[in-house]
Amino acid sequence: MKIRQALISLSNKSGALEFAGGLLAHGVRLLSTGGTARMLRDAGLPVTEVSDYTGFPEMLDGRVKTLHPKVHAGILARRDLPEHRETLAAHDIPTIDLICVNLYPFQETVARAGVSLDEAIENIDIGGPAMVRSAAKNYAGVAVLTDPDDYSPVLAEMAASDGALSLATRFALARKAFVHTARYDSAIANWLTSLDEGNQPQTFPGHLHLAFDRLDTLRYGENPHQQAAFYRDLTPVPGSIANCRQLQGKELSYNNIADADAAWECVKTFDSPACVIIKHANPCGVAVDASLVLAYEKAFATDSTSAFGGIIAFNGPVGEEVVAAMNARRHFVEVLLAPAFTDTARELLAGKQNLRVLELPLARVYHDLEFKRVGGGLLVQTPDRFNVGPADLRVVTRIAPTDAQIADLLFAYRVAKFVKSNAIVFCGNGMTLGVGAGQMSRVDSTRIAVSKARSAGLELAGACVASDAFFPFRDGIDVIAESGAQAVIQPGGSVRDDEVVQAADEHGLAMVFTGARHFRH
Fold first, then answer.
1. Which residues are CB-neighbours of 193 under 8 A, at least 6 positions away?
2. 466 with 443: CB under 8 angstroms?
3. How many folded domains does the chain comprise?
4. What is the CATH number for 56?
5. Are residues 333 and 461 in the same domain?
6. Considering the domain boundaries, does residue 268 fall inside one?
7. DSSP H helical segments within 161-228, as ranges?
8. What span, in angstroms and rounded, lies between the C-alpha atoms of 267 and 315?
9. Is 331 in the active site?
């Protein structure tokens, strides 16, 4: 289908002059509105303003511009129906073959702090979505562009096809246009239904509409009999797993992505050089030190058995010394993540063809909401951004922890935040010593953590211990004391707190309460 007349009406005018010039080079007549028409005229491009085209002025502060039969009939008329062509001819309405429209910046407007309801309302586009939907519905005879990224490909196809666009291209553009208007309407509905009685936005909208783009169809899900795909948020936060760049290796699996995300979210919370090793969504080794290679050595030593086939994340650039340390231990790794890799490190890693190497920026930024699908619904919560600091600690035992113990307690508590509940983490000298995860009983998690440490040949005398939630009974404290550990961090809040603190005092342990629980399910 040859393009003879186009209507351009843009809020985001990026690339518009070049696109309009390209259309003119193919003999296309240009229609436009308001500010877009002025921009084209000022650039010396011939353009007819819509108000002159329809014989009806723009009105109501621009609220009514293109809502006119001469515009919409020219878009919606079916070119294959004689009666439609006859109707156009009877009313002297030419066809409009291409619509180039993007919409008022509603999302950008409501993202500003303190935006008023009136400001938001005035940035709800009416004529734009109407034209986009009309053109997309009639893709058999009209091309619709809503994304500046499509300008160059469209002009290239027109150049190769004597000013025409194929049905396949028009259909692809129509699908994109309907996605565009659906997301626009969803953003409006989400924001408006989040307003309270005073018209102030709240965290959770009354009606939640979500939008994601499919990045990839995966080989299978958690198990081979399950199908799976990976979708990305429309505006993924910086430094998120959806923004990673895969440098080498096989395609990522469903479990690879889930575990890599867990590793990355954990490692990026540390300021010192850190290494996190994840196996089946749980940290099996975490450490901080003066360098990444030292952190890796300590993290690997926590549980070298579980580390086999695990996911490793570093919070700094990986160099050849880190890769050499991994090679020296013949450490089989599924995925390796870091903010950057030196050229030498990449050369050393290139021989491991199955190793997936991911590079992504380190940014301590979080999504506004987290989602979990349940039968017939969706659980939504704000992310667990809180990290306990020294000022949050309350000493509840006769013995207070030393400064060195406080540092290890805070480290252990940071790790426990990323361990499946019930979570118990033993640590010392900036490294995990034993991790107990996901047990129905907290004392069982404690016993598993002790067993893990002893299996690895690690000394627990003087260790520090973190629990992601309160100890419901003293039995966990008894196990901790028997292991040789000397300090405990936990949120407190049990009806038996007095009994638990008494047990700690009996054993000569130091204990601090944080008041902040870190369940992870």
1. 205, 206, 207
2. no
3. 3
4. 3.40.50.1380
5. no
6. yes
7. 167-192
8. 6
9. no
Residue with tokens 């919560």: 381
Please count the other Cβ atoms lying within 10 Å of the Cβ belonging to residue 256.
18
- Cα–Cα distance for residue pair 416/69, rounded to 1 Å: 64
Residue 488 sits in a domain whose CATH number is: 3.40.140.20
Q: Is 389 exposed, middle or buried (0-12, 13-18, 19+ CB in 10 A)?
A: exposed
| Same domain, residue pair 162 and 307 | no
Q: Are 247 and 358 in contact (CB under 8 A)?
A: yes
> Which tokens sit at 254?
């469903």
Are residues 443 and 310 located together in one domain of the fold? no
Choosing from 26, 68, 84, 137, the catalytic residue is 137
Q: Are 165 and 157 in contact (CB under 8 A)?
A: yes
68, 209, 250, 280: which one is catalytic? 280
| Strand-pair partners of 216 | 230
Question: Which amino acid is located at 382 in the chain?
Answer: T
Torsional sign, CA 28, 33, 36, 37 = positive
Residue 166, SS3? Answer: coil
Q: Confirm if 360 and 244 have CB atoms less than 8 A apart.
A: yes
Active-site residue 137, yes or no?
A: yes
Q: Is 203 exposed, middle or buried (0-12, 13-18, 19+ CB in 10 A)?
A: exposed
Query: What is the domain extent for residue 468?
Result: 394-513
Contact (Cβ atoms closer than 8 angstroms) between residue 477 and residue 328 = no
Asked if the structure places residue 162 within a domain, the reply is yes
Whole-structure pTM value: 0.86
Could you tell me how many residues make up the chain?
Answer: 521
Q: What is the pLDDT along the chain (521 residues), one digit of tens a residue?
A: 899 999 999 988 889 999 999 999 999 999 998 889 899 999 999 998 888 888 777 767 667 777 788 888 889 888 888 888 888 888 888 999 999 998 888 888 888 888 888 888 888 888 889 889 999 999 999 999 999 999 999 999 999 999 999 999 999 999 999 999 999 999 889 988 998 888 888 888 989 888 898 999 999 999 999 999 999 988 778 889 998 999 999 999 999 999 999 999 999 999 999 999 999 999 999 999 999 999 999 999 999 999 999 999 999 999 999 999 999 988 999 999 999 999 999 999 998 888 999 999 998 888 888 999 999 999 999 999 999 999 999 999 999 999 999 999 999 999 999 999 999 999 999 999 999 999 999 999 999 999 999 999 999 999 999 999 999 999 999 999 999 999 999 999 999 999 999 999 999 999 999 999 999 98
Residue 302 neighbours by CB under 8 Å, 6+ apart: 277, 284, 285, 286, 287, 431, 432, 433, 434, 435, 452, 456, 458
Query: If DSSP codes are grouped into helix, strand and coil, which group holds residue 23?
Result: helix
DSSP letter, residue 190: H
Q: Which residues pair with 337 in a beta bridge?
A: 313, 358
**Cβ atoms within 10 Å, residue 142:** 29
